[in-house]
Amino acid sequence: MAAVESFSATHPGDPQAGDLIEIFRPAYQHWALYLGDGYIINVTPVDEGPPATFASAKSVFSRKARVRMQLLKDVVGNDTYHINNKYDGTYAPLPVEEIIRRAEYLIDQEVSYDLLGNNCEHFVTLLRYGEGVSDQARRAIGAIGFVTAAAGAFSLLGLLRSRSRERQY
């Protein structure tokens, strides 16, 4: 398996039209789809000022997003990115012409957004594969499920302990 190389605005890679771009923000990954000629398509909060980043806390709670065509270097800013078509082994990519046609149709459209069920990774994988998938969301849902189960177990243990103390007196 080849090493994954990181790129930045000052050290750009060579993405091809239809490639998935994974941008590494300080606390999460943002996803975009490369259109060609330095441009990507991605989703940003509807009412966010400069559309280049999806880094605000507002994006976590946003229920709507705007599809934007932007320069990759502007969206990446000071962060790094990978060309990451990681689902190609599981899903067959659509023909590049269809990916680009579908993407261009959505530019400037308002779309629903949900961090766990319909996020930026779901958006770009739906364009590339015709199937919206997100490992990032799957991991978050798994973590939420684990925390919920752990909280339930600790609550049950606390209840059992308090009942066993009550019996001793």
Secondary-structure map:
Blueprint: E1 7-8, E2 20-24, E3 29-36, E4 39-45, H1 58-61, E5 64-71, H2 72-76, E6 80-83, H3 96-106, E7 110-112, H4 120-129, H5 135-168
Antiparallel strand pairs: 1-6, 2-3, 2-6, 3-4, 4-5, 5-7
Keywords: Hydrolase, Lipid metabolism, Membrane, Transferase, Transmembrane, Transmembrane helix
GO cellular component, one term: cytoplasm
GO molecular function, one term: phospholipase A2 activity
Short note summarizing the structure:
This protein is 38% helix and 22% strand. The chain is of the alpha+beta class and 169 residues long. The chain is globular and about 35 Å long.
Features:
single chain, 169 residues, alpha+beta, endopeptidase fold (from Nostoc punctiforme), 7-stranded antiparallel beta sheet, 5 helices, 22% strand, globular
The CATH topology name of the domain at 19-133 reads endopeptidase fold (from Nostoc punctiforme)
Residues in β-strands, percent: 15-25%
Give the N-terminus to C-terminus distance in angstroms. 64 Å
Radius of gyration: 20 Å
Going by helix content, strand content and strand pairing, the class is: alpha+beta
The helix count comes to 5
**Percent of residues in helical segments?**
25-40%
Count of extended strands? 7
CATH architecture term of the domain at 19-133: Alpha-Beta Complex
Shape: globular
* Mean of pLDDT: 79
Poorly predicted regions: 51-57, 140-151
The string of secondary-structure elements, in order, is: EEEEHEHEHEHH
State the CATH class of the domain at 19-133.
Answer: Alpha Beta
CATH H-tier superfamily of the domain at 19-133 = endopeptidase domain like (from Nostoc punctiforme)
Task: Order the strands across the largest sheet as they lie in space.
Answer: 1-6-2-3-4-5-7
Largest sheet: 7 strands, antiparallel
